[in-house]
Amino acid sequence: MFRMDSDRTKGRTAFALLELIFHATVRNIRKSHGNAVIGLLMNIFQTLLMVVIFFVMMDLIGMRRNSIRGDFLLFIMSGVLMFMTHTKTVGAVMGADGPTSAMMKHSPMNTIVAITAAALGALYLQLLSLGTVLYLYHAVWTPIEIHQPVETMGMVLMAWGTGVGVGMLFLAARPWAPTAVGLLAQIYQRVNMIASGKMFVANMMPTYILKMFDWNPLFHIIDQSRGFIFINYNPHYSSIAYPLQLTLAFVMIGLMGEYYTRQHASASWGAKG
């Protein structure tokens, strides 16, 4: 076919790439449900359901007195929302289109765009869900006050970033052993239900128990976020630097693993279970 040659400046190339990422992100968001509004409502319902379950469970077993002095429901939401952001991002990035996907047959498309679109789609859904849940609680139940909202949003982005890093590790390894990697991803997500520490306060935990959670970057993120949300809580046993360093390391390892996997891509991978 005839094609008109045109000079592609760096600006036009960057704009075309951003446009491609935008359309891929929209497609990724609509992948879970044909109706974007219903997909968002389902995500909000999952978040609300988890908040209610943990609220009832912690109230029944008497853990309410061990929480941070302040709004108990906000304490629960601070853990659940960070956990949901991290977990949903891991699943979205891990499920991004790989090198043997049919989408890769379209020339502008590549795996980096697919990964970026999956990560941004997860962030978009989680920010909308987070904002909606907090607004409903603020408007319907009781007014809430976040001590340092900008820093708190930074922790949300860090929970998303660690999810991107972990998801990229699973994505790079998935074509080589899809069943085993899928099982490991499920185990990781299930372990994080407890190991994220969203039900506990790090400052009140004994040292021998703290060591069971200290390895988890999400534990540090949730504890640090509570230091920014509540004016009377100052986290002593968690760090911002640790999850940030792990995120950078995971993303770099994931990029190298994805590149190696892409170089050895085989059409037969699509038939693996």
Short description:
Helix content is 67%, strand content 0%. The protein contains nine helices and no strands.
Compute the CA-based radius of gyration.
20 Å
- Globular, elongated, flat, extended or rod-shaped: what is the shape? globular
| Chain oligomer state | single chain
Are there runs of 5+ residues with pLDDT below 50, and where? 1-5
* Largest sheet composition: none
Q: How much helix is in the residues?
A: 55-70%
H/E series: HHHHHHHHH
Query: Could you say which structural class the secondary elements and strand pairing correspond to?
Result: mainly alpha
SS summary, helix count: 9
What's the overall average pLDDT, rounded?
Answer: 81
In total, the number of strands is 0
Features:
9 helices; mainly alpha; about 270 residues; single chain; disordered N terminus; about 0% strand
Can you walk through the features of this model?
The protein is an all-alpha fold and 273 residues long. It has one domain (17-263). It is 67% helix and 0% strand. The protein is globular. The model is unreliable at 1-5 (pLDDT under 50).
SSE inventory with pairings:
Elements: H1 10-31, H2 36-60, H3 72-94, H4 111-141, H5 149-173, H6 178-195, H7 207-210, H8 217-229, H9 241-263
Helix pairs in contact: 1-4, 2-3, 2-4, 3-4, 3-5, 3-6, 3-8, 4-5, 5-8, 5-9, 8-9
